[in-house]
Amino acid sequence: MTLTATSGHATGQAAPVAARADQVWKVYGSGEAEVTALRGVSVSLERGAFTAIMGPSGSGKSTLMHCLAGLDSVSRGTVHIGRTKVTGLGDKALTRVRRDQVGFIFQQFNLLPTLTAEENITLPLTIAGRRPDRTWFDTVVDTVGLRNRLRHRPAQLSGGQQQRVACARALVARPEVIFADEPTGSLDSRSGAEVLGFLRDSVHRFGQTIVMVTHDPVAAAYADRVVFLADGALVSELHAPTADSVLDTMRRLDAGV
Ligand SMILES: Nc1ncnc2c1ncn2[C@@H]1O[C@H](COP(=O)(O)OP(=O)(O)OP(=O)(O)O)[C@@H](O)[C@H]1O
Ligand SMILES: [Mg+2]
Description:
- The protein is α/β, with parallel strands linked by helices.
- It has one domain (48-62, 90-255): P-loop containing nucleotide triphosphate hydrolases (Rossmann fold, 3-Layer(aba) Sandwich).
- The chain is built from eight helices and eleven strands.
- Strands 7-8-9-4-10-11 form a six-stranded mixed β-sheet, sandwiched between helices. A five-stranded mixed β-sheet has the order 1-3-2-5-6, covered by helices on one side.
- A hairpin with a 2-residue loop joins strand 10 and strand 11 (233-239).
- The chain is globular and about 50 Å long.
- The structure holds adenosine-5'-triphosphate and magnesium ion.
- The site of adenosine-5'-triphosphate has 12 residues, from strand 3 and helix 1.
């Protein structure tokens, strides 16, 4: 099944697409240890949209995300981030794309323990030799509600606050796409709802593009669109999902109808 969000490329015009996979295959290992994690996945991620990726454990969600983010190479097919064809880029160019065009939010926050919240948020910019735009930094910090926690280190913050630091860190660089792999997987439902609300706001208020892997129908319902993977292939999608419609689709796919 091929899922495309726009007809832009058919006309040869620049499509408003933040990232795109075309017929992507991913095979790990070889011989007896060979695993085909993706089987010809095509998906376009519209700019300024919040997309959730769902599917059973082992269906290829993280693999698809890593391929779309340029963190992992594809075995066949192509990946674009914005206008850049990522497939086939050399290490140096790939590092630059990851640094300048992509942001990440992980389940385990991945903050540096010796840095303050503020230093963690600006770290990617510091590494890239860019100066944080102060107005934008303030907007991001106020949006995630961290104004009076900027001098704290991660160990002095709650899990939800740490994940909000990670969200701010991803957002402050204004990347083409933010990839989040189960960003609420380690949070209680209230902190999770805060983080999800913030992610959705950053899409609808600031036009940020976000792709999120989740197992949780309630989390997926924050997205504009949900795509479902099964056994390395895209099998369904929902627009304007609700927790109920996501659950229904999961049940239907489980039952194989
Ligand atoms: N580095 C690797 N080497 C070999 N096989 C791998 C590797 N990474 C993933 N796989 C396999 O590829 C398939 C897809 O894995 P992936 O991590 O993408 O699943 P997932 O949908 O993210 O699952 P989960 O919900 O459990 O996180 C699985 O069968 C997995 O065992
Ligand atoms: Mg995974």
